[in-house]
Structures are given as structure tokens and as C-alpha cells.
Design goal:
Layout: H1 12-15, H2 18-45, E1 58-69, E2 83-93, H3 94-101, E3 109-110, H4 111-127, E4 138-145, H5 148-160, E5 164-166, E6 179-182, H6 184-194
Antiparallel strand pairs: 1-2, 1-4, 3-6, 5-6
């Protein structure tokens, strides 16, 4: 066919009309624009919005602490002791919160899983018995009731700080869970908070 072209056959470069060529040029230009927009959006995503509490800024963990009083144990056991309750408020930083929640978001996590992680984090903070924030007669931890509002505070703040966003993985139509995932900024922040730094070599004396 190349040597003896049949009627109606033309080389590919000549088959394209001027209108088609113009359309393809416009599409190439649009693709270039979209690439720049994506690059710009990723750059913007790596910026922490101004005016929002973040990093080393403090957030108050509040809840209803149920505990045993000091001195009420018998033989080291509190099994027969009475339980007491009081409100507690303990400061933590946003870096501490995100440093604990971040790893679970690396492969996306459901909102219910995040809620459990937040409440578990609050319990562990109280169990550490931070000096100056526990009742003077505190003896032993029993439980901590945290309001849903606290979880919503954490969820909204981490979203507002561009540290996490809605999950994008495809799932079955029957899966009604809400999923959350790390943003590029969230990944970068988490690596700085949790990655183990190389220790300097010791010089012999």
C-alpha cells in the first residue's frame, strides 16, 4: 500500500485537518495548565494555615475521671474500695496528638477507629498521672469519660491544619464508613515527629 497507495489512502500526518490540529494544541495546553494547578495545589497543601493552633500549642484534654482514693486500698487491693469522680483538665500539644493518631492514617482509617484512638490517647495521658493535674487524694485510675465534642475538636483541627483529609481508596458499595487519610503535609509532619533520627557516632576517649 505504501508503494502503490489505494484510492482514499493518505499518510497519517496528512489525514489530520487544521481544525483537529488546533484542537489537539488546545488540549496539550490544557494538560500543561492542569499539571501546573496540581503542582500548585500540592505546594499549598504543604502550608499550615495561619492563625490556627498547631505544633507545640496546647489543647486541654477534659473529662470525667473515676478513681480510687489514696489510702483506701487494703493489702494493695482496691477491690472493696469506693469509687470517686471528678473533672480533670490536662494540657497536651497538637504535636503529641498527631504523633499518636498519625500512624493509623498512613493506610487510611475509619472515623470510628480514629475516635477510639483519641479516647485511648486521653486515657493514657491521665494514666501517666501528670503532676499538678490530678486530685490530691488520687490513688488509682478506674476510667475516664470523654465527651464526643473533644473528638470533634481534634477531627476538625487536624483537617483545618491540612494534616489529614477524606480517604480516597475505592471500597465496596456496602461500606458506609467514613475514611480519613494523611495529606502530603501530614506525611511530612508525621515523619518529622516519629521517624527515628540517626545518632551521632561516639568518639572514643
Amino acid at each position: 500500500m505504501k508503494r502503490y497507495p489505494a484510492e482514499g489512502w493518505v499518510r497519517g500526518q496528512y489525514a489530520m485537518t487544521s481544525e483537529t490540529q488546533a484542537e489537539m494544541a488546545e488540549l496539550r495546553a490544557r494538560v500543561s495548565e492542569l499539571k501546573l494547578e496540581v503542582k500548585s495545589s500540592l505546594s499549598t497543601a504543604l502550608e499550615v494555615p495561619e492563625g490556627l493552633a498547631s505544633g507545640a500549642d496546647e489543647y486541654q484534654i477534659t473529662g470525667r475521671l473515676v478513681f480510687y482514693r489514696k489510702g483506701d486500698s487494703k493489702g494493695g487491693s482496691y477491690s472493696a474500695a469506693q469509687l470517686y469522680a471528678t473533672d480533670v483538665s490536662i494540657p497536651v500539644t497538637w504535636n503529641e496528638i498527631f504523633g499518636i493518631l498519625g500512624p493509623s492514617l498512613m493506610n487510611e482509617a475509619t472515623e470510628s477507629e480514629l475516635r477510639k484512638s483519641v479516647f485511648r490517647f486521653c486515657e493514657n495521658v491521665v494514666k501517666d498521672e501528670p503532676a499538678g493535674y490530678m486530685p490530691r487524694n488520687f490513688g488509682k485510675f478506674w476510667s475516664l469519660k470523654v465527651e464526643e465534642e473533644l473528638f470533634q475538636d481534634v477531627l476538625v483541627q487536624l483537617f483545618a491544619l491540612n494534616l489529614m483529609t477524606h480517604g480516597l481508596k475505592k471500597r465496596s458499595a456496602t461500606d458506609q464508613n467514613k475514611y480519613w487519610a494523611l495529606t502530603p503535609l501530614g506525611q511530612d509532619t508525621l515523619m518529622k515527629l516519629r521517624a527515628i533520627q540517626k545518632q551521632p557516632a561516639l568518639v572514643g576517649t
